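Lab notebook, entry 174. We have the chain sequence and a SMILES string for zinc ion, and the next step in the workflow is to get a structural model of the bound complex before anyone spends time on docking refinements. Request logged below.

Task: model protein plus zinc ion, output structure tokens.
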Amino acid sequence: MPDTVPDIPLWIAHLPVVGGLAVPWITPRTTDGRYLLGSIDRDRMHQALVYRWCGVCGRPLDDRLVLLMRLSDLPRQCTNEPALHPQCAAYTAAACPMVSGKLDHYRSTPVRLDATMAPSSDTSARQGAAAEPWFAVWLRTYRVIPDGDNLAASYNDISPLRIRSITWSVSGLL
Ligand SMILES: [Zn+2]
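Result returned:
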């Protein structure tokens, strides 16, 4: 659990709240009503990538968007996780225990997923592994590419506006 939880900004006040944290729009919900934070609803992930909706608030992206990337994702210049509004990325960087660096390790037990839910592609590799540094990649747009059974947002042929470290600097929030 994080020591302190940031206030939930007005623009994401429509999201459900668990433990004081706004639950991202792409978070799957089990049939018994639990939100699986850290997992992704596959249908919403694809919708968000294709229609250019924000993965946190579910609304259309503007002309500035942010991909939150792990260090190991940077060389591929793509991620399965939908792009975010800058303000939604800032909230995630402050609130998400993994992105903010408040967790040292990934959870060591697999989460139970319903059939409609997608674990991230390297879930098994990450279980129990040391947490990675995260980066915010600022873009004007991205390209949707196939990535195995999933889709990914790629900036392979697009110059990022900037790339900022989130967990490697104290004041590095965007
Ligand atoms: Zn948003």
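Notes for the group: DSSP finds three helices and ten strands in the chain. Worth checking against the assay data. The longest helix spans residues 42-51.
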